[in-house]
Specification:
about 475 residues, alpha/beta, pyruvate-formate lyase- activating enzyme, nine-stranded mixed sheet, about 20% strand, globular, binds iron/sulfur cluster
């Protein structure tokens, strides 16, 4: 057990997150100086007591570098993301390019000041430069719209999202409330001059809806929101067991130009283990059907680090998916969150699979680059195996605009439905304010008026005020 005391800090959160990259929570304790002073001397565990920041620096990165270097020596690990624990390293890459004046100087800072490996520094710089080349900075009155459908046929082992398994009549009740919110948002956008740059219908699994429900919902979106300047419209088709030719036709008919079919793995046994009620052949058929109705961009999600998978299994999944010819492939690292069933089975899962996941991500970068894909967005989450990353790749210049904007945090996001978290962007302060909807779908239905009032007060009235 290590007992760390960090001097001259008041909040230990960031430091604890960094230490967690090296050690499991059972292996260490962190104290601020004042917390430590409150422990009676006779109760102090002095044998493994280590003090950081003896020189009382106020530079957080300086203290983190000390911790990184100490723990690298102790554990023999050199985590490739260095001292970075945040979710949006690409944003930092942009800030450093602005500050340093060149990509090469920014790279130097990432490696020296943030202890990133050359591979990770190159990855985020390349991603940032590509984003700028394709989409640049958003118009101040443009918004991204997210519409949540919080239902799935069954619950996956690692799921920590809003996903409910309910009767059809419950879905109908939900859709009625959702349409009320869509109509309200569409009207207030027109009144305040906001316009959608991208729309993303996600979940859960939106294709849990019947083809009639999907058709009706998409028609309602078209009728309620002015889509004349909209650049991209995504529907997450998610699980192959929910995709039918009729649903895909409905999606195509309403101008949706991007769908996401999420195999996660092409190994039959893994699909069973993670609780998906479909087989690899269903995924192949879903892709064939989507190509048949000519959806312009198809994304495929895969996950590195799934239970019992080896790097060879993962490489096999990538190989099979490339044969299905998606335009986008998003490589996720398995995040074992507190709300998932997986964490109940093994709370240290993400530590045990760190090396294996690292190898898988290296494979994905090599294989996808070779196949003509480029990284266009990237983010990290807590509790990821090996503290790694999620990377969105695309070919033929088809990056997902919505994904880029969400990570950039320079655009207002209007999130509709249960669990949606809207974000009001204040350009002058370069700041976002979160405006959440409730995540329980039944409470969402019963408090729909309140959800709309929150948006009106915190977004539309603010835009009217000229913020
Ligand atoms: S498809 Fe996604 S949202 Fe649905 S249960 Fe699986 S992980 Fe959760």
């Amino acid at each position: 057990m290590y007992n760390f005391v960090i001097k001259n800090i008041s909040n230990k959160y960031d430091f604890t997150e960094l230490i967690k990259v090296f050690l499991t929570p059972d292996e260490f304790r962190v104290y601020t100086e004042s917390e430590f002073s409150e422990i009676r001397p006779e109760d102090r565990d002095t044998c493994d007591l280590i003090f950081f920041n003896e020189e009382l620096s106020s530079d957080k990165n300086h203290i983190k570098r000390q911790i990184y270097s100490f723990l690298s020596e102790q554990t023999g690990k050199r985590p490739p993301w260095g001292i970075l624990t945040g979710v949006r390293p690409v944003k930092l890459a942009g800030e450093l390019i602005d500050r340093a004046g060149s990509v090469s100087d920014a790279e130097k800072m990432l490696e020296e000041d943030y202890c990133l490996s050359k591979e990770k520094a190159d990855l985020i710089l390349e991603t940032y430069c590509y984003q700028q080349e394709i989409y640049g900075i958003p118009d101040p009155l443009s918004v991204g719209i997210y519409i949540g459908i919080p239902f799935c046929p069954t619950r996956c082992l690692y799921c920590s999202f809003t996903s409910n398994q309910v009767e059809g009549s419950e879905i109908e009740r939900y859709l009625e409330a959702l349409k009320t919110e869509i109509a309200f948002v569409g009207r207030r956008m027109k009144e305040t001059g906001l316009w959608p740059e991208s729309i993303y219908i996600g979940g859960g699994t939106p294709t849990t809806l019947s083809s009639e429900q999907l058709d009706d919902l998409l028609q309602f979106v078209e009728d309620s929101i002015d889509l004349s300047r909209n650049i991209e419209f995504t529907v997450e088709a998610g699980r192959a067991d929910t995709i039918t030719a009729e649903k895909l036709k409905a999606i195509k008919r309403h101008g949706v130009d991007r769908i996401s079919i999420n195999p996660q793995s092409m190994k039959k046994k893994t699909l069973e283990l993670i609780g998906r009620s479909h087989e690899p052949k269903d995924i192949i058929e879903a892709f064939q059907a989507a190509h048949q109705v000519e959806i312009p961009v198809i994304n495929a999600d895969v996950i590195a680090g799934l239970p019992e998978e080896t790097p060879d299994d993962f490489a096999g999944t990538l190989e099979s998916i490339l044969k299905l010819e998606p335009e986008n492939i998003t490589v996720h690292t398995l995040a074992v969150k507190r709300a998932s069933r997986l964490v109940e089975l093994d709370k240290d899962y993400h530590y045990k699979h760190a090396e294996c996941v690292k190898e898988m991500l290296d494979i994905s970068r090599n294989v996808l680059t070779e196949a003509g894909f480029r990284p266009y967005y990237l983010y990290r989450q807590k509790h990821m195996a090996g503290a790694m990353e999620n990377v969105g790749y695309c070919r033929d210049n088809t990056p997902c605009l919505y994904n880029i904007r969400i990570m950039e945090e320079r655009q207002t996001i209007l999130a509709l439905g249960a669990g949606g978290i809207s974000k009001m962007y204040y350009p002058d302060e370069n700041r976002l304010e979160r405006i959440p909807n409730v995540s329980n779908y039944e409470i969402y239905i019963s408090r729909i008026d309140e959800m709309m009032e929150r948006k009106d007060k915190n977004i539309f009235m603010e835009v009217k005020r000229g913020c």
